[in-house]
Design brief:
Shape: rod-shaped
Structural class: alpha+beta
Distance between the termini: 93 Å
């Protein structure tokens, strides 16, 4: 703004100087009376003063508009920055809460429990095919239906002396895969697996 103000001042001084020269030359070469000359000089000075005031007022208005625009833009940028800071603070609090949760003992216990379950399931799957005796092989034990508080349906598939066999039984819903494998492994032939069925008692409770 310093360079623009300097240009304005030089322009105003030039106008005043030009008007003064014109007034001096005109009055000096004029044949009018002295009083009339003074009056004319006053009119010229008044016109010069009005012109200068108009130019300065116009310039101030432009400067004020420019300053107001900059102030408005700065306010908008400040509001955007403030909103961004609020979002960052909210994200930080969320991450802090998650960090506290994942570093707490509850997560460690949950992780250990899940790890043990996965290891147990993997160990159970690796148990097959399970050889009960020569010619008596168990291929898989699958839970096909689970009703909490009631019963579970299991499908058992195996091989007996080269013949495939399949059996479906109903057991309590609390029956684990490992426990059922132990029960089936204690049988001597597939017909004894059917004796593990408890559908007559569980399904009618």
């Amino acid at each position: 703004m310093y360079k623009e103000n300097k240009t304005l001042y030089l322009f105003v001084i030039g106008i005043i100087t030009a008007l003064s020269l014109i007034a001096g030359i005109f009055v000096g070469n004029s044949d009018i009376l002295v009083n009339s000359r003074y009056g004319f000089v006053v009119i010229i000075c008044a016109a010069a003063t009005f012109a200068v005031c108009s130019i300065v007022g116009y310039r101030d208005k432009r400067l004020n508009d420019a300053y107001f625009k900059k102030f408005t833009d700065a306010s908008e940028e400040a509001n955007k920055y403030k909103q961004r800071m609020m979002d960052v603070a909210e994200e930080r609090d969320s991450l802090k809460t998650q960090l506290e949760y994942y570093t707490s003992g509850a997560v460690k216990d949950e992780y250990e429990t899940l790890k043990n379950k996965c290891e147990a399931i993997e160990s159970f799957r690796n148990s097959f095919p399970y050889r009960i005796a020569d010619g008596y092989i168990l291929y898989n034990i699958l839970r096909t239906n689970l009703q909490i508080g009631k019963a579970s349906t299991w499908q058992i598939v195996g091989d007996y002396n080269g013949d495939l066999w399949e059996c479906s039984i109903v057991r309590p819903h609390t029956q684990s895969c490992k426990e059922l494998l132990t029960l089936v492994a204690s049988t001597k032939e597939p017909n004894e697996v059917g004796a593990l069925n408890q559908s007559e008692t569980l399904l009618w409770e």
